[in-house]
Specification:
Length: about 80
Protein backbone atom coordinates (compact mmCIF):
# COMPACT_ATOMS: atom_id res chain seq x y z
CA UNK A 1 0.00 0.00 0.00
CA UNK A 2 1.38 3.37 -0.97
CA UNK A 3 1.60 6.23 1.49
CA UNK A 4 1.38 9.88 0.56
CA UNK A 5 4.43 11.89 1.56
CA UNK A 6 4.64 15.66 1.52
CA UNK A 7 7.91 17.57 1.61
CA UNK A 8 9.03 21.05 0.65
CA UNK A 9 11.92 21.05 -1.79
CA UNK A 10 13.68 23.76 -3.74
CA UNK A 11 12.24 24.63 -7.11
CA UNK A 12 15.48 23.67 -8.82
CA UNK A 13 15.32 20.18 -7.28
CA UNK A 14 11.70 19.79 -8.36
CA UNK A 15 12.65 20.84 -11.89
CA UNK A 16 15.54 18.36 -11.84
CA UNK A 17 13.16 15.59 -10.75
CA UNK A 18 10.73 16.48 -13.55
CA UNK A 19 13.49 16.54 -16.16
CA UNK A 20 14.99 13.27 -14.95
CA UNK A 21 11.60 11.54 -14.94
CA UNK A 22 10.98 12.69 -18.50
CA UNK A 23 14.46 11.73 -19.70
CA UNK A 24 14.39 8.25 -18.12
CA UNK A 25 10.74 7.59 -18.88
CA UNK A 26 10.06 6.81 -15.24
CA UNK A 27 7.65 8.21 -12.73
CA UNK A 28 8.86 10.70 -10.14
CA UNK A 29 7.76 8.20 -7.52
CA UNK A 30 10.02 5.45 -8.87
CA UNK A 31 12.99 7.83 -9.13
CA UNK A 32 12.58 8.93 -5.51
CA UNK A 33 12.11 5.35 -4.28
CA UNK A 34 15.21 4.12 -6.12
CA UNK A 35 17.27 7.06 -4.89
CA UNK A 36 16.24 6.55 -1.26
CA UNK A 37 16.88 2.80 -1.39
CA UNK A 38 20.28 3.38 -2.97
CA UNK A 39 21.15 5.98 -0.35
CA UNK A 40 20.08 3.65 2.48
CA UNK A 41 22.06 0.74 0.99
CA UNK A 42 25.18 2.87 0.70
CA UNK A 43 24.83 4.03 4.31
CA UNK A 44 24.41 0.45 5.57
CA UNK A 45 27.68 -0.56 3.95
CA UNK A 46 29.47 2.32 5.64
CA UNK A 47 31.93 4.70 4.08
CA UNK A 48 34.24 3.24 1.48
CA UNK A 49 37.81 3.05 2.70
CA UNK A 50 40.25 4.56 0.25
CA UNK A 51 43.66 3.31 1.33
CA UNK A 52 45.52 5.83 -0.79
CA UNK A 53 43.68 8.73 0.87
CA UNK A 54 44.22 7.22 4.30
CA UNK A 55 47.96 6.72 3.91
CA UNK A 56 48.88 9.52 1.53
CA UNK A 57 52.13 11.11 2.62
CA UNK A 58 52.95 8.58 5.32
CA UNK A 59 56.07 7.56 3.44
CA UNK A 60 57.12 11.06 2.39
CA UNK A 61 58.23 12.73 5.58
CA UNK A 62 60.31 15.89 5.64
CA UNK A 63 62.35 14.64 8.56
CA UNK A 64 64.63 11.63 8.85
CA UNK A 65 63.19 8.47 10.44
CA UNK A 66 65.63 8.79 13.36
CA UNK A 67 64.25 12.26 14.13
CA UNK A 68 60.68 10.94 14.11
CA UNK A 69 61.62 8.09 16.44
CA UNK A 70 63.48 10.44 18.80
CA UNK A 71 60.48 12.80 19.01
CA UNK A 72 58.04 9.94 19.60
CA UNK A 73 60.19 8.42 22.35
CA UNK A 74 60.63 11.81 24.00
CA UNK A 75 56.89 12.42 24.01
CA UNK A 76 56.23 8.97 25.41
CA UNK A 77 58.82 9.32 28.18
CA UNK A 78 57.53 12.76 29.19
CA UNK A 79 53.99 11.40 29.41
CA UNK A 80 55.16 8.76 31.92
CA UNK A 81 56.88 11.29 34.19
CA UNK A 82 54.83 12.37 37.18
CA UNK A 83 54.37 15.98 37.89
CA UNK A 84 55.34 17.20 41.34
CA UNK A 85 52.50 18.78 43.33
Amino acid sequence: MDKILSARIEESVAALLDALAHKLGKSKKSILEEALRGYAEREEKGPALDLLDETWGAWRRKEAPSTTVRKARGTFRSSLARRAP
